[in-house]
Known about the structure:
It contains 4 helices and no strands.
Amino acid sequence: MKSLIALLAAVGATLAAPAFANQELAQKKNCMACHAVDKKLVGPAYKDVAAKYAGQKDAADKLAEKIQKGGSGVWGPVPMPPNTQVSAAEAKQLAQWVMTLK
């Protein structure tokens, strides 16, 4: 029984690690300077972004492009600048993570 509990705990830790790693990437790339998971800062909360794009098949691709190229007008008058420090793979990873938030 103890080994089963240990195994489940290990699996749970493994499953949780990617979400933490993605938030850590968002912090490393300075995304969290303007965004938070659950509240508006300069930009919208990531949960609000996920809700707005929910159900759109190409949402992660759209968001990844906006992460890299920036954008304006979708969330109000404050534009999001391009994030040239974020690679295409990192932008896709961040966008996919945002879309998991609810």
